[in-house]
Design a protein that fits this description.
The chain contains five helices and no strands. By secondary structure, the protein is mainly alpha-helical. The two termini are 21 Å apart.
C-alpha cells in the first residue's frame, strides 16, 4: 500500500523527509517525542499559508484594526499590551502543537484499527 502512495513525486519527497528525520533522530533533542519533532521540523510546511480564506483574512484584518485601536487608546500601556500579545502567541503555539499531536495520534490509531483483520 505504501508503494502506491509514493507514486507521486510530492509523496515520495514526504517519505524521503520522514526517512531523513528518523535516520537523524539521535541528533535531535531526546527530551521530546517524534511527533513533536515532526511538528517542529515543519516537514509539511505547516507555517506556510498557501491558501488563505476570505474569512481568515477578514478576521485577521479585524484583529489588526482592534490592536491598533487599543494601542492608540492606551499609549501608556503599549509595553503591557505587547507583553500580553507575546504571552498569547506562546499559548496559541503550545495549543497548536498539542492539537497537532492529538490529531496525529488519533489518525495513527484509526489506521492501526483499520489494519486489524475483520472478524
Amino acid at each position: 500500500m505504501l508503494c502506491a502512495w509514493t507514486d507521486t513525486p510530492e509523496n515520495a519527497k514526504i517519505i524521503y523527509k520522514i526517512d531523513l528525520l528518523l535516520k537523524h533522530r539521535e541528533e535531535i533533542s531526546t527530551d521530546r517525542n517524534i511527533i513533536e519533532e515532526l511538528y517542529d521540523s515543519d516537514l509539511f510546511h505547516l507555517t506556510e499559508l498557501e491558501t488563505v480564506s476570505e474569512e481568515y483574512k477578514s478576521v485577521l484584518d479585524r484583529l489588526i484594526k482592534m490592536e491598533a485601536e487599543i494601542v492608540q487608546s492606551f499609549p501608556q500601556n503599549k509595553s503591557l499590551f505587547e507583553e500580553y500579545q507575546t504571552a498569547n502567541i506562546a499559548l496559541h503555539n503550545l495549543s497548536n502543537r498539542n492539537e497537532f499531536i492529538a490529531g496525529f495520534r488519533t489518525g495513527a490509531q484509526i489506521v492501526w484499527e483499520m489494519l486489524k483483520p475483520i472478524k
